[in-house]
Amino acid sequence: MHYKAPGNSSQVRLGVSGYLEEHSNHADVRDFLRQQVPELPSYDFKVELYVMGLGFPSQVTYYATGGRGEKIGDDGKPVTGKKLDNEPYLEFIQALLDKPDNEVPHVLSVSYGDDELSVPRPYAERVCGMLGLLTKRGTSIIHSTGDGGSAGGRVGNCRTKDGTNKKVTMSTFPASCPWVTAVGATTNTAEPPSGAGFSSGGFSQYFERPAWQAAAVDKYVEEINGHLDGYYNASMRAVPDISAVGTNFRVIVGARRKLLEGTSASAPVFAAMISLVNDARLRKGKPSLGWLNEILYSDKVTSLLQDITKGQSYSCTWDKVSPGGWPAKQGWDAITGLGVPNDFAKFLEVLEDV
């Protein structure tokens, strides 16, 4: 992506969410920016307790939220104690909703998620409704889909948790919430790029498929011609919505350089793009984009995306049998969504004026 914002300051607020006692490190961020984008001026983030190179000059805040969210175990019973490792989404979103409008982020990037069926349905529905309220205040919510392919967040964990132990492909939450823009991942090791095997996707068990997805998803279900029939409900919300590159990411952790991959990397890339679009909009006196999905599925945006037609996501495995994951197809698919933004200048041109 080759783009330079017109200035070193911005009104755009980009929020990055953190959970499970995983915290940001100012020194690592400074080292990374100095090594990878030395042309940037001094640039850092602030932390609030309860993506940076691409998103410059957005004002970045890292939101660290303590505690745990509700979870259902594989036996269908509530999980407590040290085994409770779902994120406290409700507390965090409520904290954002309590903020005045001039402190609510224009873009929220979240690289966490749970197998949808591990989240109690009433809790998930409440959180999803609160996320919808946040989009009404101008926030675009960008969520990674997870790294387990058709198995969701954990490879091989593909059964219901209601006592029936039924075989199902697994989506992740909050990515399955229709108010969230769910981001999958592609590789960057060859041209044309392909869907990354780890890129999670599929169909929700909780949320119905919105009308704006109908045509794109119906075409995909027809294209896969019965593949994975019986393991998903095609009438439900489908993810991901879109993708970005998710492999070979240079990072610095504890002053050590590493290469990582995952939708936890691709989601912030797309969030940074939306931050730059919002920067252009605010400079024109326009409001931030807010909820994105209906716009993304419109012809004016899908015509700008690079369609990914190669690749297949990781498979669920039942009794040592693996039927295969979600294949990439022409148009929307359950590994890369609608595709990837291929020409940011054109992407910006369309979205800054919608």
Give an overview in words.
Keywords: Calcium, Hydrolase, Metal-binding, Protease, Serine protease. The active site is at residues 70, 74, 264. Residues 1-353 form the Peptidase S53 domain. This is Tripeptidyl peptidase. With 354 residues, this protein is of the alpha/beta class. The chain has a single domain, classed as Peptidase S8/S53 domain (Rossmann fold, 3-Layer(aba) Sandwich). The protein has helices at residues 26-36, 52-55, 89-97, 121-136, 214-224, 263-283, 293-296, 299-302, 344-351; strands at 13-18, 46-49, 59-64, 107-110, 114-115, 140-144, 172-173, 181-186, 202-208, 236-239, 242-245, 249-253, 256-260, 305-306, 340-341. The strands form 5 sheets. The chain has a 7-stranded parallel β-sheet, with helices on both faces. A hairpin with a 2-residue loop joins strand 12 (249-253) and strand 13. Helix 3 packs parallel to helix 4 (121-136) and helix 6 (263-283) packs across helix 9. The protein is globular, with a radius of gyration of 19 Å. The two termini are 21 Å apart. Residues 40-58 have low confidence and may be disordered.
Can you say what the CATH homologous superfamily is?
A: Peptidase S8/S53 domain
Structural class: alpha/beta
> Biggest sheet, open or closed, and with what strands and sense?
7 strands, parallel
The unreliable regions are 40-58
Shape: globular
- Calculate the terminal CA-CA distance, rounded to whole Å: 21 Å
Which architecture does the CATH hierarchy give at level 2?
Answer: 3-Layer(aba) Sandwich
| CATH secondary-structure class | Alpha Beta
As for the number of domains, it is: 1
**C-alpha-based Rg, rounded:** 19 Å
H and E string: EHEHEHEEHEEEEHEEEEHHHEEH
Going across the biggest sheet, name each strand in turn: 2-3-1-4-6-8-11
What fraction, in percent, of the residue positions are helical?
A: 10-25%
The third-level CATH topology is Rossmann fold
Count of individual helical segments: 9
Number of strands: 15
Output mean pLDDT: 83
Beta-strand level of the residues, as a percent range?
15-25%
